[in-house]
Amino acid sequence: MNTRGETDPMPDDDFQAFVEQRYTALLRTAYLLCGSRDRAEDLLQNALAAALPKWRRMDHPEAYVRRIMVNQLANDWRRPIREIVTAVLPDRARHTGDAVEERDQLWSALRRLPVRMRAVLVLRYWEDRSEQETAQILGVTVGTVKSHSSRGLARLRELIEPGPSAALTTANGGN
Predict the structure, then answer these.
(1) Taking a C-beta distance cutoff of 8 angstroms, is the pair 34, 113 a contact?
(2) How many C-alpha atoms does 127 have within 13 Å on its Cβ side?
(3) Coil, strand, or helix at residue 43?
(4) 12: which residues sit within 8 A by CB, 6+ positions away?
(5) DSSP one-letter string for 53-91
(6) Which of 77, 113, 137, 144 is most buried, taking the most CB atoms under 10 A from its CB?
(7) What's the CA angle centered on 88, arms 99 and 27, to 5 degrees?
(8) Range in 25-39, 57-71, 93-107 with the lowest mean pLDDT
(9) Hey, is 8 helix, strand or coil?
(10) CB burial class (10 A; 0-12, 13-18, 19+) of residue 46?
(11) Residue 38 to residues 23, 32, 34, 64, 119: CA-CA distances in angstroms?
(12) How far apart are CA 48 and CA 10, in angstroms?
């Protein structure tokens, strides 16, 4: 029962099938947007909960859920940050290798971008969505997607320090 004494509707079978089929892809997007598995799961669950009451009226449910996630994340970032202070830091896995370092450097730079710009880059380049799909998911024009893509990639290039291979390429005259 809800607060008005009414019984809550059971999820539609189509909605359950949608969640089962698209959960992993949506969770990946949520993770890329917020950078934490726990926060990504919460973000996705909240988005699915918000989508359920409107399920029967949705034309593009996956795009709708992605847009909810982006909007919720933007709203969360406007709120004050509440950090938990602890005397002991948790252990972190240590990885070696250039690929891991490059990925971490890219992720660190991506986190420094504004929410909408990050969302455009994640949808366009990580999920390989078209400009039209990205615009529809975010509720913006294709021109906005193009400008955010261009500016976001330029900003990422500024934020990412060239690695040793880039320095060698530059030293060899680009060969």
Answers:
(1) no
(2) 26
(3) helix
(4) 55, 56
(5) GGGGG-SSHHHHHHHHHHHHHHHHHHSPP-PPP-SSPPP
(6) 137
(7) 45
(8) 93-107
(9) coil
(10) middle
(11) 15, 12, 10, 21, 19
(12) 14
* 91 confidence band (pLDDT: 50, 70, 90): low
Residue 111 backbone dihedrals phi, psi, to 5 degrees: -65, -20
Amino acid of residue 5 = G
Residue 171 CA to residue 81 CA, distance in Å, equals 44
Task: Map tokens 């975010």 to a residue.
Answer: 138
- CA 31 from chain centre, in angstroms, equals 6
Q: Which two tokens stand for residue 94?
A: 């240590």
Residues in the chain: 175
What is the secondary structure of 81-150 as a DSSP string?
P-PPP-SSPPP-----SHHHHHHHHHHHHHHTS-HHHHHHHIIIIIS---HHHHHHHHT--HHHHHHHHH
Average pLDDT in the chain = 78
CA 78 to CA 97: how far, in whole Å?
A: 36
pLDDT of 174 reads 46
Instruction: Confirm if 12 and 30 have CB atoms less than 8 A apart.
Output: no
